[in-house]
Design goal:
alpha/beta, Diaminopimelate Epimerase, Chain A, domain 1, 5-stranded mixed sheet, 7 helices
Length: about 250
């Protein structure tokens, strides 16, 4: 009995240590709000929406002081850090102090976020960022990304839908063209005299006889067109294309 009691005490002590030590959480951080622009309620809501997606998506608001050219690399590095090196996913990175942003696909998501998809994401988040509505920008980002993921779930490329304003504009153009053709056709039927292409048609038969013909050139016009130069140097501003977009707000 004296030998069993110390063993029991040691077992109880080990169990108490294991229960009191918190388990290591290896789950990736999906919402990173270093800048403190999100409320607790909105952060929980965004976390839940991101966990419902079928890929790892990170939203990060930081206090980094960066240049626009650094945004893409900084976003990729932060994604790797927050997701423990996850190979595929998306990050929406915002440097609040520098007023720079980056939208980036990681791994297979880089090609999946083509130019049309990036246009949609930027069109949703940039207006809110410019007005410092960061919670709204994050929510709009998730909504736009959900649309993109649903549209490309079967492996097809994302294509921006034609806005309804364009439908109205093209319908009006087509209607005007059809109406113009109809009016011109009816107007042509009302004319009894047609314009002639040559002056001879207006000449009275036998009233004019041409005995001599020559060409006299009074002026000479010389036009010079400069040869276009191939300027391949890149410019500044927002980076474009699919996979990754950076800009200022």
């Amino acid at each position: 009995m004296k030998r069993i009691l110390p063993l029991l005490l040691a077992l109880v002590f080990c169990l108490s240590l294991s229960l009191s030590t918190p388990a290591y959480d290896a789950a990736p951080t999906l919402v990173y709000d270093e800048a403190g622009v999100l409320s607790g309620t909105r952060e929980k809501e965004l976390n839940q929406r991101l966990r419902d997606l079928k890929t790892t998506v990170v939203i990060a608001f930081t206090d980094d002081i960066i240049q626009e050219s650094e945004a893409e690399a900084r976003a990729k590095k932060l994604f790797d850090s927050l997701t423990y090196g996850t190979s595929n996913g998306v990050i929406f990175y915002v440097s609040v102090n520098s007023r720079k942003y980056n939208l980036q696909g990681i791994g297979t998501m880089y090609d999946r976020l083509n130019s049309d998809a990036m246009d949609l994401l930027e069109g949703r988040v940039v207006p809110s960022l410019k007005n410092d509505r960061f919670e709204e920008a994050a929510s709009e980002f998730v909504s736009a990304l959900e649309e993109i993921l649903d549209a490309t779930a079967d492996g097809s490329d994302y294509t921006s839908p034609l806005p309804w304003k364009n439908y109205v504009f093209y319908s009006l153009i087509i209607g005007l063209v059809i109406a113009g053709i109809a009016v011109l056709s009816m107007a042509a039927q009302l004319k009894s005299v047609r314009r002639q292409h040559a002056a001879r048609s207006y000449e009275k038969q036998g009233s004019f006889s041409l005995t001599r013909q020559s060409d006299l050139f009074l002026y000479r016009t010389l036009s010079r067109v400069p040869r276009p130069k191939n300027n391949s140097s890149g410019g500044g501003g927002r980076s474009s294309g699919g996979g990754s977009r950076s800009g200022s707000f």
